[in-house]
Queue: 3 jobs
Job 1
Amino acid sequence: MNQQLAVLLADVFAMRVSDIHPDLKKDDVGSWDSLKQMDLVMSLERTYGIALDIPDILQMVSVAAVIAVLIAKGVDLGD
């Protein structure tokens, strides 16, 4: 798991970095509501210099999906 992304996700969702993993789903995170989804979008756009569209945002329902969207946008998450 990319450390920068793990730290970003942990910060957005007020979790420990060690609890962030690709299998983590939106339903598993109590704080992952629509407001936090927009916090996530803004953080990802700012950190990685990308623009996320509505389909991208709707697809991001798990850490694995966030990773997939970032890779599709050309973000290098090489560990």
Note: The radius of gyration is 11 Å.
Job 2
Amino acid sequence: MTDEDERKPEPPGKPWWRHGMVWLVISGPLIVVVAGIVTAVIAVRGADALADEPNAAHSSSEAPALKARNHAATPAEN
């Protein structure tokens, strides 16, 4: 017998999408991208407008929160 006689053709392997490890590797970054897109859509659609006068439109119990939010959104003065 020669070496060629001992070699048997290997059965064809599974396609790449049939391996579980491939989906494990792909799913992590894919979930992060989808979550980033969802977060961006929520941020763009749900952006709150700044209140000029916090006490005019809201009750006094909401005034401290509105003042803090407006202060955080105001650009720094130089």
Note: The two ends are 89 Å apart (CA to CA).
Job 3
Amino acid sequence: MRRVVMLGALVLVGGLSVVGLSGQQGQNTVEVERLEDNLFVLRGGGGNSAAFVTTNGVVLVDTKTAGWGQSLIDKIGELTSNPITTIINTHAHFDHVDGNVEFPASVEFVAHENTQRLMRENNPVRGLGRPARPSPFNGDNALGIPERTFTDNLVLGGGSDRVELHYFGRAHTGGDTWVVFPSLRVMHAGDAFPGKQIPIMDSSNGGSGVDYPDTIRKASEAITNIDRIITGHSTVMTPADLAEYAEFVGAFRGAVRAAKSAGTSAGDFAASWEVPSRFAGYNSPAAERLQIYVQDMFDALP
């Protein structure tokens, strides 16, 4: 039987129940947003994680930065007595996978085949301006490297416990996985949909600013059985937000293509480009970082 225990004060925000769960003194703080009795968004320490409590175990999506794995274990233990049985990594970036090594060997790790390879390569994130962090994964078969992979689609479990994994192409990285919980009509998009902003287009890890809008559009059109989307670093959003995001990234690609055709340099474009007024509330990175992504797009565009 499923047992879920909610701790802390319950505050209704936008129709969702939000529970603040602080770690014990001296530990990392994990904040938990309850979407359903058996689905939680776990915030803090990197990208947004999600815990899906199934009949016999917990499916965890992403494990944050190094040192946050045990905090996730502790917080999930406060939500349910079911063990963590499966971890899905949406992509290879350190703020979504480095906590893997803190989980027991009994956990099954799952990811797209490109994410498995990229975790082993440990490439620096393009645009962050710093070298790759020391990898917590020692050797190709190290604990925490996903041993179960897929190419296009994968189904885990069945019935109300069913989890669907999809790959639609390059975007944030070359291995972005879209995780769907059909019985709850919720999807975790990882950093392919980080929030309303110009995304990291990490060409060092297979990402593509040129392919990005097409990939988002494919996901938006293919996944129709959802009402809510867990983003990589922002609030829970809607399918309409995802469709708008495809338009936003597509408009950016169009502006980059026009700038290249006009002979504008990547630096000049990055210094002058502004978010179109129709996309109110969207953000752009500093010009120095934006220039890196624009140059990568210039190089890839015909």
Note: The chain has seven helices and 14 strands.
